[in-house]
Write a structure and sequence with these properties.
The chain is mainly alpha-helical. It is about 65% helix and about 0% strand. The protein contains six helices and no strands. The N and C termini lie far apart (about 60 Å).
Length: about 120
Amino acid sequence: MTNTGAGGDRVARIGLALLQLGNALAVRSERESVFRLGLGSNRFLGWTVLGTLGVQLGLLYWPPVQTALDLQPLDLGDLAIVLVASTVAFWAIEAERLVSRLRASRRIPPGGPSRAPETG
């Protein structure tokens, strides 16, 4: 990251806030993927996530707020890192669900397939 000191702290705070937004989307259902449920199945949550994302970006990039709160915007590289890193929990939860669905469809127990002892 190109920012140091307080800039690094800002990157971490934004990253954590966005991580929580992805987590909120991912944990809506215990078994179903957010892609199967669709973002429109819970419009209130969708609007909340979009609104919070808008506020976060507005705080960083809207000049009157930058001046009032003495904030510096993230450069494009830092913003890209934050956006990618903040989706890690979301993708991990989605991957766990995929594995769970594949196991259920093949009826493979969580410990893996059991083998009968070989005789002979």
